[in-house]
Amino acid sequence: MMFQPTLAQLLAISLLLRLCLILYGEIHDRASLLKYTDVDYRVFTDAARHVTEGASPYLRHTYRYTPLLAILLQPNILLIPWFGKLLFSVGDLAIGSLTYSILSHSGHAHSTCLTGAALWLLNPLAAGVSTRGNAEALLGCLVLCTLLAVKQGRPVWGGVLLSLSVHLKIYPIIYSLPMFLHLAYCNPQPSKRSFLNSYTVLFVVSFVIVQTALLSLFWYVYGYEFLYETYIYHLIRSDTRHNFSPYFYLLYLTKYSAPIYGAVMSSALKFICFLPQALLCALFAIKYFDKLELCLVVQTISFVMLNKVATSQYFLWYLWLIPLTYPQLRAFALRRTLCFVVPWVAGQGVWLLTGYLIEFECDNCFLAMHFAGIAFLISHSAMVYNLISSNWVQVAHPI
Predict the structure, then answer these.
(1) What are the CA-CA distances from residue 108 to residues 112, 267, 290, 387 (Å)?
(2) Which letter does DSSP use for residue 61 in this model?
(3) Among 164-168, 213-217, 239-243, 392-396, the least confident range
(4) Which residue in 305, 309, 306, 238 sits closest to 273, CA to CA?
(5) Which of 263, 280, 334, 384 has the lowest tally of Cβ within 10 angstroms?
């Protein structure tokens, strides 16, 4: 009989893997000029140092996150410098555990739930990102907690957790519509299925209260700088140096056109880029809100693939959701799966190569990087198509 570990054993193995990577990173950083630790981790640590000194975390240039993150990472200064990496790794483990809980709540067998959790916990990309000091695991933990709360019919917790998620990063706001519709029309009691019921009201009210409290508190303490760095910057941000977005090359060309013409065109393109994102996210929310796992995955992939800025960390936003679709994906033929996996891997390889040539060799490879972004768009589109067609398609409840 084949050995099957328990969830506790799987979590222990995953924790050991991450502790080894953290230790390796500390040794590597002392011996090499090319650091294992993510540059953002140094930004987090510097911001936390300012907070411990009673100053604003925004004194650290390029710190564009909520003050909560700097507050959480004060032990980097007060205890050990790798506390944050350990915290993010624990967030990774929580994502795996939540994946198991969500699949179990959906009625899947223990072995299926365990495999879904393992897809994240033993993923080298996930382990590498968190142990290098990237904070995305905390966001993933909140997103999956929100999903579980909504599926369990706990609207207050769902609203609170979604509000915290949006406070960390703006993009989880796209989940508010499908979650609202799920609470409205997927109630186990048919008599309570309506657009406005106790579940939807509690969900909205709890979201608004927490969001208002956080905004008011940090506005009072840090002023406009908090609003700009945490929210406004990310809304107007445009990375014309290099990113995975299919719009990257167009934005790059318009930015360096004639001053007035370039500014007008760049602003118009940013608005145009937003329209297909908003349309797809709304359509998927309306059609698939009764299958929240599928809905959130295809919404997130669509958001990332059509965003005007897309970097490697954005891929994590859907990678921690994809294991939730494992029960459906395992029915895929290998050939069909490779149709979107191979372009995804190949596109990333080409992009990383061109990014290296642009950044370190100063070569003009912007057009090649643009084609790598187009390959990503195609692979992401194939991913969405296959996820929807893998026996998930259902007629949504009437609205």
Answers:
(1) 6, 47, 17, 18
(2) T
(3) 392-396
(4) 306
(5) 334
What residue type is assigned to position 377 of the chain?
A: L
Q: What does the alpha-carbon distance between residue 102 and residue 201 come to, in Å, rounded to a whole number?
A: 24
Q: Which amino acid belongs to residue 125?
A: L
Q: What are the pLDDT digits (tens) for 255-268?
A: 665 555 555 666 66
How many CB atoms sit inside 10 A of residue 40's CB?
18
State the sign of the Cα–Cα–Cα–Cα dihedral 164, 172, 64, 356. positive
Q: Are 61 and 40 in contact (CB under 8 A)?
A: no
Give the total residue count for the chain: 399
Whether 279 contacts 273, CB under 8 Å: no
Triad 308, 312, 316: Cα angle to 5°: 100
Torsion angle defined by CA atoms of residues 306, 308, 314 and 319, in that order, rounded to the nearest 10 degrees: 0
CA dist., res. 99 & res. 116, Å (int): 7
Question: Can you tell me the distance from the alpha carbon of 306 to that of 308, in angstroms, rounded to the nearest whole number?
Answer: 6
Q: Which residue has the tokens 């969900």?
A: 203
185-207: pLDDT as tens digits: 887 777 677 888 889 999 999 99
Determine the Cα–Cα distance for residues 284 and 5; give it in Å rounded to an integer: 36
Among candidate residues 315, 327, 151, the one with its CA nearest the CA of residue 245? 315
Q: How confident is the model at residue 283 (pLDDT cuts 50, 70, 90)?
A: very high
Q: Which structure tokens are listed for 64? A: 């564009």
Residues 6+ apart with CB under 8 A from 69: 44, 47, 135, 138, 168
Contact 196, 399 (CB under 8 A): no
Question: How far does CA 388 lie from the centroid of its chain?
Answer: 20
**Quick one: which of 94, 125, 128 has its CA closest to 18?**
128
Residue 393 has pLDDT above 80, yes or no: no
DSSP-derived letter for residue 57 is: G
34 or 171: which carries more pLDDT confidence? 171
> How far, in Å, CA of 301 to CA of 322, rounded?
10
Which is more confidently placed, 393 or 322?
322
